[in-house]
Write the structure tokens for this entry.
Amino acid sequence: MTNRQGAVANGASPNGRPHDGVSPNGRPHDGVSPNGAHEAAPTPSRGAPSAARADGGDGNRPGGLAALRRALAYLRGHVRDATGAFIALLVVTAANLATPQLVQLAIDGGIKRKSASVILYAVVGLVAIAVVRGIFTFLQGYLAERASQGVAYDLRDALFTRLERLSFSYYDRVQTGQLLTRLTNDVEQVRTFAGTGVIQLSSSVVMLAGSIVLLLRISWSLTLVSMLIIPAIFVLLMRFVRRIGPLFGQVQQTLGRLNTILQEDLQGNRVIRAFVREDYETARYRGINDSLLNKNIEATRLLSNNFPFVFLLANIGTLIIIWFGGLQVIGRQIDIGQLIAFNTYLSFLLMPILTIGFLAAQISRAAASSLRIFDILDAPLEVTDKPGAVVLPPIAGRVEFRDVCFRYPSTERDILHDINFSAEPGQTVAILGTTGSGKSTLVNLIPRFYDVTGGAVLVDGHDVRDVTLSSLRARIGIVLQEALLFSGPVRDNIAYGRPDATQDEVEAAARAAQADAFIRDLPQGYDTVVGERGVGLSGGQRQRIAIARALLVSPKLLILDDSTSAVDAETELLIQQALDTLMRDRSHTAFVIAQRISTVRDADLILVLDGGRIAARGTHDELLRESPLYNEILGSQLQPELGVRRQASGVS
Ligand SMILES: Nc1ncnc2c1ncn2[C@@H]1O[C@H](COP(=O)(O)OP(=O)(O)OP(=O)(O)O)[C@@H](O)[C@H]1O
Ligand SMILES: [Mg+2]
């Protein structure tokens, strides 16, 4: 009953969610998971350094039990199932505890006194108890599973919702594989514990208490003697828990690293083939797979090492009982049936202790996973609506950068310095500069993908931090440097920002982006399904679909980042025509990271970035006259008029 995912998909209870807020263990909300291995992009050198960093491991962090308690609080959303399971459990336990009583009755009251009717009663009673136990064991298992599936559902739901809201900077820090592992495997660990673990734990406690009471009733002296072994067992278990807890954290952490490599390699499989790095990647994967295996084996070894001793102690307990109990039977202090019942209760007593021992491992594991889960849920939303943020009213499209400085959370130095400029409604601003000069960074500040570290970005006089993110971004159409499409029909991709758009609107946007013609040539036209990440389309086709997607939201601000690089001459011509149309269209203010002279020449304002500063500004003619840097860039970097392919000069 472990691996059924999502069986209770309706178990969501938004009100039952105890998260949001400060973690009870008082960890500061730094949101940086220690394993977050700062890797903005996969680079060839990624393996070693991040691995070294990651090895710090989640498991060594304190607060695991508090995190587990927090995770278990999700059971509150499934009170009915959980309570039902608990009641069923009480019934099963009571049935278990009653059985030896009836056996004792059959022996002492029936067999010894030669009374067939008492034996019959006892047997009927035993059968009835077996039936009850069967029914309630089923109920308990079923209800516990339902509750735990509900918890898993809620956790996944909360995690996904959080991931949808976390800022760009969070994704700069963490590895996708770690996130995937947390949503799948870590949730599963918590689920298993929330279902079977919690039930077993409570069952053990009830059994323990019940057995002790019944043992004392039979013979308190025998009970005290048999209790001697219990402290020894507890000492063993505690030692075990302390050692295995951190190990499980490391297991999850390593699993996350394994998934990170898997995910990167699946995504980058073309690059791997192209550079004949299959063996390297296989070795890299195998290395981490090995360390996962070793950690798992280490955990198993700890587990197996521990239990023989516990069993030994348990057996010593039985020996003691037979010895002392035997003497008491001979001395006629107790009956033989009582001794048998006593011995059965003693095993009932030891069973919960062993279960708690086994559970200790599961608890450690679930605690480590809970920590990893709450790492995501507690990660701060760096870019978010501030309290009292207002909805941005319809705008004309004026954009102003006022003394803007910017540094990525993960970088030491400022990437942008003292950026000052303003764009009037309907204008086109072209941004150029060498690679890495900060062009993409600059335009990413307008939709608030990141917050400025100094100064302010204003849209129609509103500081972008004062308005709601959704209302701000709804006014902006953006074509990112990498044109990413979703798997699905072309039509849906274009209508991604406005799912309710009509077919006519979709086609109009596609025409403006010079995409209509090639889409019609696709096998099913607008209904053609494009593969994951738009595989099946050329780079230029993807870009034009991305442009159409940006246009369809009728943005007041249009941002085109490098959207026309890496295409053939003919496509370039088409895209240029699309851009010309867009720039002549004065209904929006456009920011274009430019690649060709024709784009720049018609721009109302050209910003030349150099090392994160505006090195020169003006119109084409002004800059041509005044700026040596501009002339240099024109000469070396920008493509001449349409039609000539870009040189492979490292310019993007
Ligand atoms: N997410 C990030 N985290 C940290 N540093 C970043 C991040 N993105 C970019 N940088 C750094 O910021 C600087 C500017 O990058 P940006 O992407 O803005 O350059 P660009 O002008 O758009 O270059 P290109 O023409 O190659 O697209 C670079 O030094 C880069 O290393
Ligand atoms: Mg860029």
In short: The pocket of magnesium ion (ligand 2) is lined by residues 439-440, 481, 561-562 (CB under 6 Å). The mean pLDDT is 80.
